[in-house]
Input
Amino acid sequence: MAFRSLRPDQSARVHVHDVRTGDDIVIFESAETLLEAPNWSLDGETLLLNGKGVLWSLAPQEGASPAPATHVGLPEINNDHVLAPDGKVIYLSAADGHIYRAAPGGGPVEKITPDDGLRHFLHGVSPDGQRLAYVQMSGPGTPGTLMILAIAGGEPTLVDTGAGHVDGPEWSPDGEWIYLNSEHWATQPGHAQVCRIRDTGGDLERLVESETVDWFPHLSPDGSKAVYIEFPSGTQGHPADLPVSLVVVDTGDWTTPLERISLSGGQGTINVNSWAPDSTRFAYVSYPMGDA
Output
């Protein structure tokens, strides 16, 4: 799996969006490096993104420049990376299909997923920092299943979500729910919808019923708001370079959007939770062509 690159005449723009005011600021733009999937550090001073197969840090302010980290023994990483609640550890999904533990700033890494011949795509760390939620797949195009793994490694546990591919599982701040997207209700291929399942298991609860293809629900740290990405109807998977929207909702009413932000993007835009620790802003990446 090679890292993604920009198309000719395309750029990657890293945005910070303020949900209080609606202000949307491009803090960094590059025509050379395709950055993806910002995480926000616990102290609010740094965004962590992947690009060219490595992790980069970027201050969330205009005029900042990203700096790459050097991790020893880490294969090329993808856009599935999540910080532990204490902010001292980051978990990273790599091109070899495994999940690794590392310090955000660089250094040695530790592989924690089993050598089971399957592929493991990280999305969530439990609020107590003791478990990981990831999607397990046997190969490209095969349905993803929800798995839970202790941070010490060992045997993962399958969470039964019924029929349909799932992706993007992450815990609510209180640890009671796992939020994700699923094709459980799909009447046509790829029709994912946002939903949740209790941490203890049970039935999926559908949060939005829409004609669009909806992925990656991310709750703010205070649990009051969420943002997810809306793909055009008929989309299969979460491909790049489509007209998409980021939908901001109050978690008390997922059916009435507070905002809808239109952009060119998809893959890489908001694959992981990128809310600021104070729940007032989130970061995302758009990929416009030319001067768009």
In short: The longest strand covers residues 242-250. Residues 24-286 form a domain with the Neuraminidase fold (CATH 2.120.10.30).
